[in-house]
Amino acid sequence: MKLVFSETAPDYARYQYPYVVWAMPEPGETPADLFAAGFMPASPQLDRFTLARHLRVPLKGFRPSSENRRILRRGEGIRADLRPRADFDYSVARRVRWLAFAEERFGPGVMPAARLDALMDSPAVSHLLHFTDTAADREVGTALLYLELPRMAFYYYAFYDLGDRARNLGMFMMTRAVVHFAELGCEHLYLGTCYSVRAKYKWQFAGVEFFNGFRWSADEAELDHLLARDPGGAHWLGEPGCLDRFGGSAGLARRTGFQAAFETEEPS
Question: Which of 46, 91, 126, 216 gives a 20 to 30 Å CA spacing to 15?
């Protein structure tokens, strides 16, 4: 992959000059390679990715916890069907429901119609996991996915009936997806970012880990610290004792999977 860095808001008083890290796949690489390195799609065309604190569940040998099983029981009678995007009816009625969900759940203007339409017409959505209440013969939710089996699945966006609070559909759908892809022999299910305590509900699956900037970590205390720290304070690695946890700068360098090699000639 090729890396590109774009400036973001600096903090001169603390000598912090941040850059967003972008990655572009090279020939022979697939999105699974970039996900594994800690990147997430920054474009629905999957031609640009960004380094982020996102989560994934290792699925080899995954076993649902008692809490996972409790959530699954609440959704008894709901069938999950995996469908390729080409075989899914993105109807006017569904589009209207999904946009109304996005307006309420994500916030006004976060998912306008043009963005949803572009997403549904992009390689970032290869499949959908569709949920149906079999007794009522009624659809209750759909998750948009990117699949590259057996290496990975990406649980991108989920739309569901917000009025069906008793079954906690959002959590049920995510839990069912984890079980579904574990049963399919998928290696990892990626669940999106975790930058707030509110998003930590994703941390309820055995073995879950997050990308901390240089490696995948299953250390919940480390994540809790990052969620609780003042984003306007010192850089994480500049906090007292932080580098010591990784054996200093040299130890940290040994743990990262990134290594830069600069070209000496201007590419043509």
Answer: 216
Asked whether residue 50 is assigned to any structural domain, the reply reads yes
In a domain, 261, yes or no: no
* Residues 119-148: tens digit of each pLDDT: 999 999 999 999 999 999 999 999 999 999
Report the CATH number that the domain containing residue 59 is assigned in CATH.
3.40.630.30
The closest of 201, 125, 123, 195 to 157, measured between CA atoms, is 125
Q: Which residues pair with 143 in a beta bridge?
A: 129, 158
Sheet holding 2-7, edge to edge: 2-7, 19-24, 49-51, 39-41
CA distances from 205 to 77, 155, 210 (A): 22, 14, 12
**What are the backbone dihedrals phi and psi of residue 130, each rounded to the nearest 5 degrees, phi first?**
-105, 135
Distance between CA atoms of 154 and 156, rounded to whole angstroms? 6
**49-76 residue pLDDT tens:** 999 999 999 999 999 999 999 999 999 9
